[in-house]
Amino acid sequence: MELIYLQTFKEVADRQSFTKAAEELGYAQSSVTTQIQKLEKEYGVKLFERYGKGLRLTKSGEELLKYAVQMLDLFQQSKEKLTKQGGGTVIDRDHRLVSRLFSSAGRTSAETSI
Question: Helix, strand or coil for residue 7?
Fold first, then answer.
């Protein structure tokens, strides 16, 4: 699951409209629909239901929205925190420690690789 799907889900829930969410996010409506369908498949539940010309969250959608807001908030907080810190430990794609930047010791990454 992509984090961006949760952002899209939140926009649809906030606006109660796939079209309005697509406009806000700068996506084609079909992209929004696809992302919501992928979330529904991932969780095995319907997240929205249509009523008349409107759209509303299902009980499962209401529950997911609570988690989505928390996850998106945590993501934003982590971005802000790490941006302020700068530098630090470098991690490769396999999540192994590659090197540590020791500015006070003046070591190079080759000296500190594991």
Answer: helix
DSSP 49: E
pLDDT tens string, the chain, 114 residues long: the values are 899 999 999 999 999 999 999 999 999 999 999 999 999 999 999 999 998 888 999 999 999 999 999 999 999 999 898 888 876 555 555 544 444 444 444 444 444 444
pTM (two decimals):
0.72
Question: Two tokens at 2?
Answer: 């992509």
CB 35 within 8 A of CB 9: yes
Domains of the chain by range and CATH?
3-84 (1.10.10.10)
